[in-house]
Specification:
Layout: H1 2-25, E1 52-57, H2 67-77, E2 79-84, H3 90-103, E3 109-113, H4 125-138, E4 141-146, H5 170-179, E5 183-185, H6 204-209, H7 223-236, E6 242-244, H8 254-263, E7 267-270, H9 275-279, H10 282-291, E8 296-297, H11 308-316, E9 322-323, E10 333-334, H12 341-355
Parallel strand pairs: 1-2, 2-3, 3-4, 4-5, 5-6, 6-7, 7-8
Antiparallel strand pairs: 9-10
Length: 366
Amino acid sequence: MRLYLLVFVLLFEVSLFAQNNTDTLRMDWEAYDPPSTLVVPEHHIDHAKFPFIDVHSHHWRMAEQDLDLLIRQMDSLNMRVIVNLSGRGGERLKAMMDNIKNHGYEDRIILFTNIELRSIDEPDWTEETIKQIEYDYRNGARGLKIYKSQGMTNQDKAGNRIRIDDPRIDPIWAKCGELGMPILIHSADPKSFWEPHDENNERWLELKLRPHRKRGPDDPASWETIIGEQHNIIRKHPNTNFIAAHMGWFPNDLQKLGQLLDEMPNMYVEIGAVIAELGRQPRMANRFFEKYQERVLFGKDSYKPGEYSTYFRVLESDDEYFPYYKRYHAFWKMYGLDLPDAILKKLYYKNALKLIKGIDKQIWEQ
């Protein structure tokens, strides 16, 4: 009897031990994010090697913003010029420019204007929008920003999606070309947002944590349709320069992006919010930058000074296997591109100087 009791106690303890260890190992898979045990050189770069122009930033309240603080932050990063894409237009843009002039920062801050598409059915929409573009240009606007909502969720009076290649907008693109105002255009989002939210979707974690980003195959249209509409206007207006935001959502297919750049010489791209894509393909990315070094601009998108160091590290260092700062956005590790100085200078400022008016070109090579 004692032997049976001893065996029972031992089995019970073994069962408890196994259960406790199983509980220890059980976790949501997305919580698994161990620090790497790889020991390799690391370079944390908080200050860009060369002065740079950030062509993709948003400051909605610049009319009353503390610009002295902004300039101090820019100086700490070696950012010579910032482009505020959220100029809004009309009197709001003028108020922003007045604040910039009052602080004496015309050589540090560039404004792009914005337009309203939802009134496109109004009989005088085209004429009034052109007047606004001209007014904004006289008040210092040096480009036009088109938001993704302006080809996805904006609707006309009948409730139909306004296509960004609607012919009624053609005079606006032409006017920007006439004035030498580049158009920085954001169309769609990563293609994975339109794909099934399952184990084959590389953005599964992001879509779980940000479910509002999920889209059906035709919500509000297919990804291919929305991207194609952007390309339609670029092809149709060869005298106007377009900067496709986020590398046109082809940073994961640089061969295809190169084909598009070959086809459309008035198309440029910027790297905002897609540095993790470049960092996971260092050899392909280097070949791309070598071939298209005249066509890529530096952009960041959300203005968070602490995040720029990751961009500098990818572009300037030869570090291996380091993380992106948003795991849900990119769960993979990255590698430094170690771009040559000549290419870095074009990416950081030379290409932007060619496209954007109003920046003093005399100070860059000092």
